[in-house]
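for the writeup, i need someone to sanity check this before i put it in the appendix. the sequnce is what the collaborator sent (i think, or maybe the updated version? ugh). structure was predicted straight from it, no edits. if anything looks off just tell me and ill rerun, i have time this weekend
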Amino acid sequence: MLIREKIIYYLQNIKENCFNIASEIFFFIFFRIYLAIFLVLNSALWIFSILIKNYINEPRMALHYNVDIGIDYFGGTNNIFILPFLGLLFFVINLIIFILVRNNQDRRLIGHILFVVALICNFTLLIGLGSIYLINSR
């Protein structure tokens, strides 16, 4: 019985700490703006990935094009979902870094740098997804 009570106590502490961290992070207006932009970009990545997968409707698709050689990488249509997952991963990793430095004196500058980099990565992945569509639509 004692072990069960300790586990419940630790889980409640973790829940309270997560709530405190989330309320600290959402206090910053720039984080809410970056989060909204990220959600739009990453949602677009997921939606376009699904649309491209349904449009191609083949088991394999061209995933990379080289100017010198031409199409040099083919893969399964499910490999297209790596791009939106990478965008989500970039944002989550930068969010974890921001949580670790949230009590730092330069937290605003660090936050802006981290989240702008995550947004640039997501935008670049969206452009890459557009090139995959162009390669496979011809």
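The beta strands are 60-66, 70-76. The two ends are 66 Å apart (CA to CA).
thx in advance!!
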